[in-house]
Specification:
Blueprint lengths: L12 E3 L2 E3 L6 E5 L7 H14 L3 E5 L3 H13 L4 E4 L4 H9 L4 E4 L7 H13 L3 E7 L5 H7 L4 H19 L4 E6 L3 H12 L7 E2 L7 H17 L5 E2 L7 H14 L8 E4 L10 H12 L7 E5 L5 H4 L5 E5 L3 E6 L2 E7 L3 H15 L10
Parallel strand pairs: 3-4, 3-10, 4-5, 5-6, 6-7, 7-8, 9-10, 11-12, 12-13
Antiparallel strand pairs: 1-2, 13-14, 14-15
Helix pairs in contact: 1-2, 1-9, 2-3, 3-4, 5-6, 6-7, 7-8, 8-9
The chain binds iron/sulfur cluster (SF4).
Iron/sulfur cluster binds next to helix 11.
């Protein structure tokens, strides 16, 4: 059972061929952390992210060399590429010409408005989606002066000012918005407030959230709070970790909200004094294997034969280990008993058999 979520109807914008907003599923995106100038390393990471389910990828363009590399990256990337721009508009213009599908700017950091106007016009000509990325740490001085601190009201005012500016001055609407802070509650409140005032799609995320565990918690709290209220069209779980982890966390959030699933759901017992098998190792192996499977499936990894099948009878298929032996069960009923060494290969074999019998469970696309 999952919560009933009524998603807010936002307008649809396009990042290349990926629709964001409206009835589109909540899109999952990430950002590379390789040196963009290293085309091979960046493309390798993009491919790993794509395999994990990433739908749109952002890359930093710190200098001319990075923009030069962008051309090859865009050409070879299996998913639309967004350039992340700070301060220098000439790099932005070159990035647009290199074929990017989107650009992320924080307009308040542009000192020269004429340059900003030129960049927006070039984006408009090539239908490049612009994300107005408001960040609590870099609000423009006029707004900061008014509110004293970068509070949600200040962030919303800044975002609305820029949104209206681009719409009115440039008649361009392929835009999405983010309002990020490193504090999850401030972030959530900013998005909530903004969403009441605009129907432009929102890119959710907490910025500078930290490492895998603290970052996952901060992002999950903000993103879950908002998605439960129907707010949010695309998410980036920002982590100080391998960006591929961001994709796994993003899909875990969406899966647990009943919004989207990609990889199998794995239930596992925490183990107790009855456990007679190295369950942590077993779990890790199942988890790693399942990351390569795109299917709607519930698997269980349990620590003892006596209680495991009963405690995990909601699983489509599960394993439980005992002293030197293991069992495989289907909906709580034991179907095979094998030696411990054969447990995992037999389990994977049974899952593949199950998926052949239930092809409707396979996700052929991520949407
Ligand atoms: S399945 Fe067995 S080992 Fe795991 S928590 Fe339950 S009783 Fe303990």
């Amino acid at each position: 059972m999952y919560p009933k979520i009524k998603r807010k109807k936002t307008r649809v914008v396009w990042v290349g061929n990926v629709g964001i907003g409206g009835d589109n599923p909540v899109r999952v995106q990430s950002m590379t952390n390789t040196d963009t100038r290293d085309v091979k390393a960046t493309l390798d990471q993009i491919h790993r992210l794509y395999e994990a389910g990433c739908e749109v990828i952002r890359v930093a363009i710190p200098d001319e060399k990075a923009v030069k590399a962008l051309k090859d990256i865009v050409k070879e990337s299996p998913i639309p590429v967004i350039a992340d721009l700070h301060f220098y508009t000439s790099l932005g213009e070159k990035a647009v010409k290199a074929g990017i599908a989107g650009i992320r700017i924080n307009p308040g950091t542009f000192k020269n408005k004429k340059n900003l106007d030129r960049l927006i016009e070039i984006c408009k000509e090539r239908k490049v989606c612009i994300r107005i990325g408001i960040n609590a740490g870099s609000l423009e001085s006029a707004v900061l002066k008014k509110y004293k601190i970068p509070c949600p009201k200040a962030m919303v005012e800044s975002a609305l000012n820029w949104l209206n500016y681009i719409i009115e001055k440039h008649d361009y609407q392929n835009l999405k918005i983010s309002l990020k802070s490193s504090n999850w509650w401030e972030t959530a409140k900013s998005y909530e407030m903004f969403s009441k005032k605009s129907d432009f799609p929102l890119h959710l995320g907490v910025t500078e959230a930290g490492g895998l565990i603290p970052g996952t918690i901060k992002n999950t709290m903000a993103i879950t709070y908002l998605l439960l209220k129907g707010i949010g069209d695309t998410i980036r779980v920002s982590l100080t970790a391998d960006p591929v982890e961001e994709i796994y966390v993003a899909f875990e959030i969406l899966k647990n909200l009943g919004l989207r699933s990609l990889h199998p759901d794995i239930i596992a017992c925490p183990t107790c004094g009855r456990c007679e098998i190295d369950l942590m190792k077993l779990y890790k192996e199942v988890e790693n294997w399942a990351k390569n499977i795109k299917a709607d499936l519930k698997l269980a990894v349990m620590g003892c034969i006596v209680n495991g099948p009963g405690e995990a009878k909601m699983a489509d298929l599960g394993i439980a280990g005992g002293k030197g032996v293991g069992i495989i069960f289907k909906k709580g009923k034991i179907i095979r008993k094998v030696s411990e060494k054969d447990l995992l290969p037999t389990f994977f074999e049974e899952i593949e058999k199950f998926l052949k019998e239930h092809p409707e469970r396979l996700h052929l696309t991520t949407s």
